[in-house]
């Protein structure tokens, strides 16, 4: 694989946004487990998702967080739902926001998708609450 990656301004912005949303621990863990095989993918999502989309000024991180959780729930992307629910600690999306988003998922993407996402979200909230209490 090509090791000659030179970070662009968009990549640097994406990394800053990714860290602001997901937290340093998550990003550091993702980078430390990256291999030659998946490094191009990590670079792509950092530049495209985080540098292009998440860094746009039109919506707040809270708004992007709500939409992202709804989309991931509708698509059945369980691990990503959990990750983005944990990220709400950094984005400002509230539990009420997530509840409303999942009600939309139920109507527009199906009750089973919303029901499954609610199960995941409740588990993540319990983990977050346990961490806050510790």
UniProtKB/TrEMBL annotation:
Which InterPro entries does its entry note? 4CMD/NDH-1_regulator, AhpD-like, CMD-like, Decarb_PcaC
Keywords in alphabetical order, please.
Lyase
Record flagged with keyword Translocase: no
Q: Which residues form the Carboxymuconolactone decarboxylase-like domain?
A: 41-122
Matching entries from PANTHER family are given as: 4-CARBOXYMUCONOLACTONE DECARBOXYLASE FAMILY PROTEIN, CARBOXYMUCONOLACTONE DECARBOXYLASE-LIKE DOMAIN-CONTAINING PROTEIN
Q: Which organism is it from?
A: Ensifer oleiphilus
The upper taxonomy is: Bacteria, Pseudomonadati, Pseudomonadota, Alphaproteobacteria, Hyphomicrobiales
Pfam families (alphabetical) = CMD
Superkingdom of the source? Bacteria
Protein name per its UniProtKB record: 4-carboxymuconolactone decarboxylase
> GO molecular function of the protein, one example?
peroxiredoxin activity
Annotated membrane-spanning segments are: none
E.C. code? 4.1.1.44
């Amino acid at each position: 694989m090509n090791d000659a990656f030179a970070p662009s301004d968009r990549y640097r912005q994406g990394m800053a946004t990714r860290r602001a949303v997901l937290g340093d621990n998550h990003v550091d863990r993702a980078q430390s487990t990256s291999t030659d095989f998946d490094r191009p993918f990590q670079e792509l999502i950092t530049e495209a998702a985080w540098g292009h989309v998440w860094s746009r000024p039109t919506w707040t991180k809270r708004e992007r967080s709500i939409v992202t959780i709804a989309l991931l729930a509708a698509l059945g992307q369980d691990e990503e739902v959990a990750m983005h629910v944990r990220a709400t600690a950094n984005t400002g999306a509230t539990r009420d926001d997530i509840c409303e988003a999942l009600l939309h998922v139920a109507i527009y993407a199906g009750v089973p998708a919303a029901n499954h996402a609610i199960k995941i979200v409740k588990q993540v909230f319990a983990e977050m609450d346990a961490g806050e209490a510790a």
